[in-house]
Amino acid sequence: MPGAPLYIGMEVVIAMFSVLGNVMVVWAVRINKSLRDTTFCFIVSLALADIAVGALVIPLAITISIGLQTHFYSCLMVACTVLVLTQSSILALLAIAIDRYLRVKIPTSYKRVVTKQRAAVAVVVCWTVAFIVGLTPMLGWNNLWRLQQNGSLKDDLIITCQFENVISMDYMVYFNFFGWVLPPLLLMLLIYVEIFYMIHKQLNKKACTTNHAEPNRYYDKELKLAKSLALVLFLFAASWLPLHIINCITLFCPTCDKPLFLLYIAILLTHGNSAVNPIVYAFRIKKFRDAFLKIWKQYFCCKEVPAILNQTSEKVRKEVDNPNGNGNPYGETKLLPPEQGKEPPQFDSDEANLPPPQNYSDEARLPSPQNLDEAKLPSPQNLDEAKLPSPQNLDEAKLPSPQTYSDEAKMPPPSERCFVTAEEETPNGAQ
Question: Which fold is adopted by the domain 4-300?
Answer without folding.
Answer: Rhopdopsin 7-helix transmembrane proteins (1.20.1070)
